[in-house]
Amino acid sequence: MTEIVIASGKGGTGKTSITAALGVAAGRRAVMADCDVDAANLHLLYGPRHQEAHEFWSGKKAVIDQDACTLCGTCLEKCRFDAIGPAETTSRAAGTLVVDPLSCEGCAVCYHLCPEDAIAMIDVMAGEWFVSKSRFDHWFVHARLGIGQESSGKLVSKVKDEARAIASREGNPFVIVDGPPGIGCPVIASFSGADHVLIVTEATTSGAHDLQRVVALARQFEAETSCVINKADLNDDARREMERFCDANEVEVIHRIPYLPIFFEALQEGKTLLETGNVEIERAMMDIWDHLERNTSPR
């Protein structure tokens, strides 16, 4: 199978809109995976019907045993994240120390230093992941990371592993991944094992800088890399800078899309770009997919 990751240096470039359209163009030949688990939104366009739902457990948080705690204050003093403090709810006894789960980083310093062994480190349900069928009848794997959780890279890996397993089982020749924006840990997890990275950027000064960072990261994984410049008519100087960079680094610019309000209109209506009736954008999406289908192959 061929795994294609759609990436961007930041949010707002049109990455997810383009990913959704490419999935429609590929049809049931592709398994879709939404690896933007911190802010997943591909499901808003795909209308998934859940076939499976799973809890995702990762990391630990501190909890204070109120019966064993003597209020010595050691944990309060040593917690560098200010995650421990007096209880503020009426259900707790006055003066009780509690751990704020959103602030706790799970470092376990309080657990190791408590003289009364009054602190335990408990497993945390960090999110959920789902195997679904989209309204286009794709297999679609997606996830939801819990508020304040920091296991996004691990959850991305879980989503990708499941998408690959489905593609292998069902004989799907493509896995198309909506990657997270940026170059952080979840992006690294999404690039791992990818055959091709398609970078969606926009013709701005920051877009040119982000393009360079994402290309450098993709090269670390030895993935083939190509580029789509969205909003290509916003800034001619920035677009030319991108084109020069891509030419110098053997990154093919496979399409230049002008600024089109249809991107926002389609999102508001919950439609993919191939359902808008806009001939220009529909032709662009089909051209991009035809290029990827012809020019990508598994390593």
What does this structure look like?
There is one protein chain. With 299 residues, the chain is α/β, with parallel strands linked by helices. Helices cover 35% and strands 28% of the residues. It has helices at residues 15-26, 42-46, 74-78, 109-113, 152-170, 185-191, 205-220, 236-248, 262-268, 279-295; strands spanning 2-8, 30-34, 49-64, 84-86, 97-99, 119-133, 139-145, 174-181, 196-202, 224-230, 252-256. Strands 3-6-7-2-8-1-9-10-11 form a nine-stranded mixed β-sheet, with helices on both faces.
- Are there runs of 5+ residues with pLDDT below 50, and where? none
Run of helices and strands: EHEHEHEEHEEHEHEHEHEHH
Task: Write down the Rg.
Answer: 23 Å
CATH topology of the largest domain: Rossmann fold
Order of adjacent strands in the largest pleated sheet: 3-6-7-2-8-1-9-10-11
CATH architecture of the largest domain: 3-Layer(aba) Sandwich
Strands, count: 11
Q: What fraction of the residues are assigned to beta strands by DSSP?
A: 25-35%
Helical content, roughly? 25-40%
Number of domains: 2
CA(first)-CA(last) distance: 9 Å
Largest sheet: 9 strands, mixed
Class of the largest domain, according to the CATH hierarchy? Alpha Beta
Q: How many individual helices?
A: 10
Topology:
Blueprint (H helix, E strand, L loop, with lengths): L1 E7 L6 H12 L3 E5 L7 H5 L2 E16 L9 H5 L5 E3 L10 E3 L9 H5 L5 E15 L5 E7 L6 H19 L3 E8 L3 H7 L4 E7 L2 H16 L3 E7 L5 H13 L3 E5 L5 H7 L10 H17 L4
Parallel strand pairs: 1-8, 1-9, 2-7, 2-8, 9-10, 10-11
Antiparallel strand pairs: 3-6, 4-5, 6-7
Structural features:
28% strand; Rossmann fold; two-stranded antiparallel ribbon; 10 helices; nine-stranded mixed β-sheet; 2 domains; 35% helix; alpha/beta; Alpha-Beta Plaits; 299 residues
